[in-house]
Amino acid sequence: MGKFITDGMVSLRPFRQEDAPRLAELANNEKIAVNLRDGFPHPYTPEDAEKFIEMALSKPDQIFAIEYQGEYVGNIGVHLKSDVYRLGAEIGYFLGEPYWGKGIMTKAVKLVCDYAFRELGIIRIDTGVFDFNPASMRVLEKCGFVQEAIFRKSVIKRGKICNEVRYAKIKE
Ligand SMILES: CC(C)(COP(=O)(O)OP(=O)(O)OC[C@H]1O[C@@H](n2cnc3c(N)ncnc32)[C@H](O)[C@@H]1OP(=O)(O)O)[C@@H](O)C(=O)NCCC(=O)NCCS
Questions:
Q1: Which CATH architecture has domain 5-127?
Q2: Residue 84 CA to ligand 1 centre (angstroms)
């Protein structure tokens, strides 16, 4: 069953098929794609959005649409690990550019972490940020993540080699 999680300002809810056109519009942005893995398409088409939503609907307790003032504004996912890493999860997120700088992702990350620790039985959440993305590092720091490592030259993005900064938050 899909969850609805809110702090009164920012909400996380399951995706709906109707989100596809706006998802495609917001996601079709090189300033977003450059910060994400190559599995995130660029250009991002309406068909990519429909496929993504179909996948998201198969994991409604792990992949959420972010809503702000009643509008769909971005995505956040908490991906459970397996084997010996199964008490951990990795998060990933993006916000449409018109909504940057309002504190929305900080709220969304806090909401997803509280939810995951409370309801998914995990004790550790981690993620990696490419070294040219200070805004995302700041979001994680504001949410209580600690920088644990720098994976030197571990990423090639748009033909350029960079470091990945690894962050984690532990259940209190
Ligand atoms: C990174 C991203 C999620 C931030 O979302 P957001 O809602 O704008 O973030 P918030 O407003 O909650 O916080 C951003 C913080 O970064 C800071 N910041 C923004 N640009 C910065 C920069 N160039 N250098 C340093 N800090 C910066 C802001 O000042 C703010 O910190 P503050 O509250 O201390 O002032 C959003 O820009 C995005 O989706 N980017 C593209 C995709 C992406 O990078 N995803 C994450 C991959 S790891």
A1: 3-Layer(aba) Sandwich (3.40)
A2: 32
